[in-house]
Design brief:
This protein has 245 residues and is mostly helical. Helices cover 63% and strands 3% of the residues. The chain has a single domain, classed as Up-down Bundle (Rhomboid-like fold).
């Protein structure tokens, strides 16, 4: 099957992004809207490092739902559907939701830290689900490196090479980023976060189990408990000559 089923959290996420985009268009073109209202909406719910460091710590949660234009929305939602469906099917819905939330937020934090070095990134809003999509892309490339995808729907290429190619393109375009609220550094940050997220998750049955695995935190807690128990264990030698028969 060329296209995966449109279901689960993938469908919910797409519907949320479409709904938010409609709200953005209403703020821009509605009877009481305008450029100022649309910009304020983007600055309030998008990711602005300057505002994040001033206390708007919720922005790394909300920026992934906003998009700059219809083509931006369409491309991101298509990619989220195609790649996210495989990850949700592999991990289960709850674990996939956790992945999206964690990688989205951490990617936003990395973008904010980058903004301390880049005045453009620091003061302008960054929006879009592209960072999460790159995290998903990196996760799939690590879990299924030999999975074949069709580049431009024509050329077959292994997943690992496809991910490397996309990251290389982002590095090449890095110096022209974030002029329209879409940041190449966010894409690279998402790939970076996704790589290390899966590295940690691989401690739990190769990173492919369900939520019942317990995840990396459960493994860490179990190892800590085992160390404490080893300290409490004592070897007792029984004098066989004093045993009562």
């Amino acid at each position: 099957m060329l296209f995966p089923k449109f279901q689960g959290f993938v469908r919910t996420f797409v519907f949320i992004c479409v709904g938010v985009f409609i709200l953005q268009q209403f703020a821009l073109r509605g009877p009481f809207g305008g450029q100022v209202y649309a910009l304020e909406l983007t600055r309030f719910f998008g990711l602005v490092p300057e505002l994040f460091f001033q206390g708007m710590i919720y922005q790394p949660f909300t920026w992934i739902f906003l998009h700059g234009n219809f083509s931006h929305l369409l491309f991101n939602m298509f990619a989220f559907w195609m790649f996210g469906s495989l990850l949700e099917e592999t991990w289960g819905t709850r674990r996939f939701i956790r992945f999206v939330v964690v990688t989205g937020y951490l990617t936003g934090v990395v973008v904010c830290l980058w903004g301390l070095l880049d005045p453009i990134t620091f003061s302008l809003p960054t929006i879009g689900a592209s960072g999460v999509i790159f995290a998903i892309l990196m996760a799939i490339s690590r879990l299924f490196p030999d999975q074949t995808v069709l580049l431009f729907f024509v050329f077959p290429i292994k997943m690992r090479y496809f991910a490397y190619l996309m990251i290389a393109i982002e590095f090449f375009a890095l110096y022209d980023s974030n002029h329209h609220g879409i940041s190449n550094i966010a894409h690279l940050s998402g790939a970076f976060v996704g790589y290390f997220y899966v590295s940690i998750q691989k401690n739990s049955r190769g990173g492919r189990g369900s939520d019942q695995d317990g995840g990396w935190f459960k493994n860490f807690r179990d190892r800590l408990h085992q160390r404490r128990m080893r300290k409490k264990l004592r070897v007792i030698y029984v004098d066989q000559s004093k045993r009562v028969h």
